[in-house]
Structure formats: structure tokens, C-alpha cells
Amino acid sequence: MSHCILIGAPVDSGQQRAGCVMGPAAYRVAGLPRALQGLGHGVEDRGDVTLPPLRNAMIANPVVHAPDETVGWTEALSAAVQAALGDGGFPVVMGGDHSLALGSVAGAAAHARAVGRPLFLLWLDAHSDFHTPMTTQTGNLHGTPVAYIAGRAGFEAFPPFPAPLPPQNICLFGIRSVDPAEHAALLEHEIEINDMRVLDEQGIAVPLRRFLDRVRAENGMLHVSLDVDFLDPAVAPAVGTTVPGGATFREAHLVMELLHEAGLATSLDLVELNPFLDERGRTAKVMVDLVASLMGRKVFDRPTRSF
Fold first, then answer.
1. Can you give the pTM of this predicted structure?
2. Catalytic residue chosen out of the listed positions 12, 75, 125, 232
3. Most buried by CB count within 10 Å: which residue of 15, 85, 147, 158?
4. Is residue 229 flagged as an active site residue?
5. Choosing from 97, 182, 257, 272, which is the catalytic residue?
């Protein structure tokens, strides 16, 4: 059984639609600690990370929104995740918008480097998030974490990413909304792209098992970053960046169950939940249910829903 360390990340600076700051509280209210305990895991809630004193993050692109705060969150969350892994825990970072992964994955990478293991990344998202602070046109830094993790230039205002991940260690899974500039850059970096066309043709299991086989073969650590918009908005409406055609409830649970069976995941992000857009806590409950599947709940153990 795992020692799950819950880390609240009330990050709202990576985009401009208010509400993600309430995400960590929503996960607690929706019963995430109780679900993990019910599966026999130890649970330690370390509370919400707070911003350090901000410094001036100089980014030449004038459209970038709240760079000082996002750099501060990156530093604080990197330290929190690295500490949790160093304590032998399984960190669950409850967000917060996806810019939190700038810090969470950096912390996982620093720990992986310290213990001499490669880090792999499974990015469950509608978007590739492969812009840099210099290429973003919206100015929203939640669209940049994968570029930072892969070592793209343009992140000079951020702490240097510890041991950028080789492209074969990054798997984008379920994406269906990619800007042309991002697509061109992804092809240059040869990152594995399992978009919804691939998943429609091959199903969920084949490409995911192929990636997990590589993680296992290299004795890798695996960071899973789960965006609410990986799911179809009909299943999970509480997100500000809805893209139709996402994973169904059953497909998302299959991903989680395959991850559990593989036993390779070592850290987890839950991102882009905006409780202000939710329906009676529906999306928060779905996300908690998905975490439970990742941590061992079987398909026949799912509770009857109140919505």
C-alpha cells in the first residue's frame, strides 16, 4: 500500500478564468482522503502550498499573464513534491490550473535524478501544452509545462528544469486541441502523440501498455498529470477549456485501472478543476473516482452516484 501525500496547489495564475483556486478544497470535500483510506492507503494531507515572496520574473513576451506568481508556484511546488517523494510518499498534487505541473514535474525530476532513475511523463489532456513563454499568444502559462519539461528554450525566468525528459519519455495521451506552432515543435522533438484519432483506432489499452512497457524496461518513475479536460465535457463539465470528443467515463477508468495494474506511477497531478463551473460537485466526484481506480478500486466496486 502507498503512503499518499496530498499537496494542495491553489494555483490560478496560469490562466485567466477564476475558480481553479478552489480546486484543492473541492477534492477534500468530494472525499479524496476518505477514498484513499478506504482502499487501505495511508493518507497525509500536508495542506495547501503557499507562495514564497515573489521576485520579478522578466519575460519579454508582453502578453504573458502573472509570470511572477507562476514562477513562485513553480519553485514552491517543486520543493513540495521533491520532499514528498524523498519521504517515501506518493504525492497527489490537487490543483489548480495546469501551470502547477511546471513545479510538480520539476520536483519529480529532481528526485528521480537524485535516486538515479529516469522519469517518464503521462500527460492526460486535451491539449499538448507545448508553448513556451515566448510563443504563447494567449499569455496563459498553463499551456507551457510540457515544453519546460522537455527542455525547450524560452524559460529563462524559471528555475532550470532538472534533467529535461527525453522525448521518448513523454507520452501525450488523448490530446485533440493543438496549435499549429505547437504541432510543428512537437514533431521536431519526436514526442509520442496518442491523440484521440489514435485512441479511436487502437483503443485505450494498446498505446498505453506500449508506453508502460518502456517505463518498466528502464526501471523508470512515472509522473501522471491528469487534466479534467482529458474527459469529455459531458462527463466532466467543470473546466474552463472544454474540447468535445474527450475520453468517456469508461475509457478514463480503463486508463486508471491499467496504471494500477502496471504499478509504475510514482506521483500524480489533478488539474484544471474549476468548482465554480461544476454541477453539484459532479466533476470533483468523477476525478476522485478516477484516483480511486488508479489506487486499486475495481470496476465492480464503484459506488452508485447521486447525480
1. 0.96
2. 125
3. 147
4. yes
5. 272
Q: Based on the residue annotation, tell me whether 129 is a catalytic residue of this protein.
A: yes
CB atoms within 10 A of CB 48: 18
Give the whole-angstrom CA distance, residue 126 versus residue 177.
Answer: 6
| CATH code given to domain 3-301 | 3.40.800.10
Residue of 111, 127, 223, 253 marked catalytic: 127
The residue annotated as part of the active site, out of 229, 251, 257, 278, is: 229
pLDDT per position as a tens digit, 156-195:
999 999 999 999 999 999 999 998 989 999 989 989 999 9
Look up residue 36 and give its three cell numbers.
Answer: 484513499
Question: 294: alpha, beta or left, given left = phi > 0 and alpha = psi -120 to 50?
Answer: alpha
To the query of whether residue 125 is one of the catalytic residues in this protein, the response is yes
Contact 138, 126 (CB under 8 A): no
> C-alpha angle with apex 136: 238 to 21, nearest 5 degrees?
30
- Specify the DSSP class assigned to residue 49: -
Q: What is the pLDDT of residues 43-60, one digit of tens each?
A: 999 999 999 999 999 999
Supply the DSSP string of 87-106, one letter for each residue: TT-EEEEEESSGGGHHHHHH
Answer yes or no: 45 catalytic: no
Within the chain, strands assigned E span 3-9, 42-48, 90-95, 119-124, 170-175, 192-195, 221-227, 265-271
